[in-house]
Design a protein that fits this description.
This protein has eight helices and seven strands. By secondary structure, it is of the alpha/beta class.
């Protein structure tokens, strides 16, 4: 408990799923969490910012909800300053927001391609640029990007998902984010700003991803990714930066106890 006491974290895409879970756990560790998504009280799929804020506050944490559409350049570019003004500073940026859309390259509409780049590369780039001056001002900071195991090359012989799943563009942008993370980590280490990435090892059944996951497909608890996210967001950059890892692998490699989102109760193994 209190690993992040006094820290301020901005978590994008926090109305549900992975973003909500990270926000809950960071708040349980003492952080003031600025949570953002498209709107406060409405959603195209299950989950709203208001619900996330209520869950955090009911558990004794502090959440500040700011609606922002990251596809809108004006809203995207203003978000960090709004968060800093609302919370009084910024220590941690979690780039989680995104809505995966799959289609084979030969059939993918151009606007779907642009949205994928917007969600998973252009928005993190813009938010990092605007966050860095505030992190430098604090003398330290942490940037966490959310990756994907689809960034790994498809195994041969190709399975049905590689041939028909339509994930090529999504996976390519996520692979770019993996390399982007390592490069930004090198650039910002001198400023004591750690830049890391964690992706699900397989599939996490979130409201946004459920439509792509067959009912009988094995999934992993979100808590493994959250535990890794926490581990990557409090050590000095000189000690830990440039890590690109996966949710199930990191806790096992570092003998971490995986807790439930309250930060108190170990997850049943």
């Amino acid at each position: 408990m209190n690993t992040l006491q006094g820290k301020i974290a901005l978590v994008t895409g926090a109305s549900r799923g992975i973003g909500r879970a990270i926000a809950q756990r960071f708040a349980a560790e003492g952080a003031t969490v600025v949570i953002t998504a498209r709107s406060l009280n409405t959603a195209t799929v299950e989950g709203t910012l208001s619900e996330t804020a209520r869950l955090i506050e009911a558990a004794g944490g502090r959440a500040i909800a700011l609606a922002a559409d990251l596809e809108n350049p004006a809203e995207r570019d203003a978000l960090v300053e709004r968060a800093v003004a609302a919370a009084g500073g910024l220590d941690i940026l979690v780039n989680n927001a995104g809505f995966a859309e799959y289609a084979p390259v030969a059939e993918m509409p151009g606007d779907m391609f642009e949205r994928t780049v917007d969600h998973y590369l252009r928005a993190p780039f813009a938010l990092i640029q605007r966050a860095v001056p505030h992190l430098r001002q604090r003398g330290a900071g942490w940037i966490l990007n959310i990756g994907s195991v689809t960034a790994e090359p498809p195994q041969r012989p190709f399975d049905d998902f590689a041939r028909f799943g339509g994930a090529t563009v999504y996976a390519a942008v996520k692979a770019a984010m993996h390399r982007f993370t390592e490069g930004v980590a090198a650039e910002l280490q001198i400023d004591n700003i750690a830049v890391n990435l964690v992706g699900p090892s397989g599939a996490i059944r979130t409201p946004g991803a459920a439509r792509y996951i067959p009912a009988d497909y094995p999934t992993e608890p979100v808590e493994y990714l959250v535990e890794t996210a926490l581990a990557l967001c409090h050590k000095p950059a000189a000690e830990l930066t440039g890590e690109v890892t996966y949710s199930m692998a990191y806790p096992a490699a570092h003998n971490l106890i995986v807790y439930q989102l309250d930060g108190r109760t170990p997850l049943a193994q």
